[in-house]
Amino acid sequence: MTGASVRLAVAAGVILSLNGCSVKQPPPVSETVKEALPETTEVPEDFRESDAAAPGQVEHGWLKTLGDPELEALVAEAVKNNLSLRAAVASLDKAAGFATQAGAELKPAITLAGKGLSREGFAADATGIKNSGVNLNVSWELDIWGRVRAQAQAGELAFEAAQYQVEWAYQSVAAQTAKTWFLVTEARLQEQLAQGAVDLAQRTLEVVEAKHELGQVTNKEVALAHASLSSRKAAVRQARGGRQQAARALEVLLGRYPAAEIDGATDLVAVPPPIPIGLPSELLERRPDLIAAERAVAAEFSQIQSAKAARLPRIALTTGVGTSSTELTDIVSLGGDFWNVGANFVAPIFTGGALQAQVEIEEADQEAALANYGLAALKAFAEVEQGLSNETLLMEREMFVREALADAHEALRVAEAQFEVGRTDLLSVLQQQGQVISARVGLLNLRDQRLQQRVDLHLAIGGGFDAPPAPEDEEG
Q1: Domains of the chain, start order
Q2: Which residue pairs, CB below 8 angstroms and at least 24 apart, start in 75-83?
Q3: Which pTM was predicted?
């Protein structure tokens, strides 16, 4: 081996060892959230105590706890057919492509080229020149400063963020499907209540007309009874319109044509017992949207490294093999095969501040990603806290409304008895009927709100909607 060959081998070994320098890893979640939140923000160790929360770890499979097989089938249909999810999955495929592109420079680039040239003279004694050949070229940048690896790492982190965004989209669609199903059911029951109010008004009108024939009531009472019946018929149409609107919204979620053909269940399911909610710190590593936001910060961390390394020299190894044939080489009997090996060295000397500006752009993007992560974390904490408060308040409201409904029924019974014997007027009876109807409507709405709130709380704490896999039977 010649002295030049030895020096070349040593230089290549040094370059390859530099190419193995490690790239800095993004900071852990605990450090990222501290940097993202203001210094004055103190995250408690536990969520506040609530009647709606039970001790323990957050569990998946909340959909089955609702005990509604028809809803489970609808969620499965939505997950399969929802067009928003298709768009989210397409975005994930796009992110995967970007990640592949970002890491492509870590591998050698191989190209194959061919050429063919023929040139004829115009004079009678001109000699034609023909040239043809094919060559294979290989180029590989030695990633001495980690620019390419940092860029590849950023692409992988961005892909991870997209994956968690898609997972969050799946959970959101499942939750929205459940909430809309409950809304359709409530609307169906509200329509039934409105129809029941019509039947009550019709019976009242018949009583009033009979008493009017006996001269026991005036035309005023008859007019009031007719007006009550007409207004309650209008309420039926309003409830029907609400049911159809909710049904169409659900059908769009399911990917069906919005024909308002879904009727809803015959009754709302009961709210399940309190659920475990976990800890605030666990929320950051459990909710897919928060993980996606943190991965976006980490991706920007790697982009900064890549931008900083871009200011340093680049070295690329190149080699090529091929064959060439021309009339000239044929005449002098020279061989047409050739090969070459070389190295390219590029060092930015003056770029007008473009490379430093790129570093500053990436740093600004990271600051924005940090702020977005901090904001997402605070919103997530607020959603859990508000969800716990709402569950308790709605439960207490339902208890009071049930008591009010019982009292309204008793008051209506007394008013109707007094009207029969002429001790009160029809207006009092209609007012008591209105209170009973209002209490029934309010109670039904609260039952729906409690279910809606429970679904929101499951989504807020990051619990998945799929049932956990059944444990395998142990042998022996």
Answers
A1: 20-46+67-117+127-268+283-368 (1.20.1600.10)
A2: 75/174, 75/177, 75/178, 75/465, 77/254, 77/255, 78/173, 78/174, 78/177, 78/253, 78/254, 78/255, 79/170, 79/173, 79/174, 80/255, 81/254, 81/255, 81/256, 82/173, 82/253, 82/254, 82/255, 83/255
A3: 0.80
